[in-house]
Amino acid sequence: MLNENAKYDPKSAAESNTELGINYMRQGRYAVALDKLNKALEQDSKNPMAHTAMALLNEHLGKKTEVEPHYKKALSLEPDNSATHNNYAAFLCSQGRMAEAETHFQTALANPLYKTPELAYTNAGLCAVRFNKRNKAMDYFRKALQHNPNIARALYQMAELYEEQGAFTEAQAYYRRYIAIASQTPQSLWLGVRIARALNDKDAEASYALQLKSRYPEANETYQLKQSEQIYY
C-alpha cells in the first residue's frame, strides 16, 4: 500500500531515473534510456551522473553537438570525478582534439582515489595511437597493464605496436597474453599470422591462417592474408 503522506523527493526520483536510463542504455534500448534521462534532468538538473549518462547516450546516438555540454555540466558539478574526465577525454580525442583530451586524461589520473586508472591509461594510449604518437602510446599501455595485467585492448595494442617496430619476440609475448583472455577477431588472427611468420613459427602461422580463413572468409584481413601468401610463398 502506498504511503499517501510520503513527500515527493525530486532528487531521489532523478537518481532512480538515472539508474534506469543507464541500465536501458546498457541493454541497447536507447529510446527508453533517453526518456528516463530526460526525466531525471527535469527532476534534478544538477545531477552530475544524469549529465554524464546523457553525454554517453548522445555519443551512441551520433548527436555530437549535444555531447560536450553535458560533460561540461557534469564536471562543473563534480570536478573531481575521474571517470567523467576519462569519458570526456575519449570523446575529445574522437573529435581530433588531442591536447584537450590529454588534459582531461591527466586530471583523471591525478586523482589518488580513482579506482580504475587502467581505463584512463588505456584510453589515453588509444588516443596517442590515433595521432601517431607510438612511444607515448606504449608508455600509457604499460602503465595500464601495471594496474591491471588483463586489459585486453592494452595487450593487443602492445603486440601490434611491437610488431610494427619489428620487435617480434616482444610482440609474441604480448599477443599470447592477449589471446589467453580474449576472443580472436579477424584483426587479431591476422596479427598472429604476421608475428608467427616473422618468427618462422610455421605451426602457429598455419593455425591462425586456418582460423582466419574458416571463421572470417569475407573479412578484409582474410583478403590480405591470401594476397600475402601469393607473395610470401
Automatic annotation (TrEMBL):
SMART domains: TPR (SM00028). It holds the Pfam family TPR_19. TPR repeats lie at residues 14-47, 48-81, 118-151, 152-185. PROSITE patterns: TPR. Transmembrane segments: none annotated. InterPro entries: Pilus_4_PilW (IPR013360), TPR-like_helical_dom_sf (IPR011990), TPR_2 (IPR013105), TPR_rpt (IPR019734), Ycf3/AcsC/BcsC/TPR_MFPF (IPR051685). The keyword Repeat applies. Keywords: Repeat, TPR repeat. NCBIfam families: type_IV_pilW. This is Photosystem I assembly protein Ycf3.
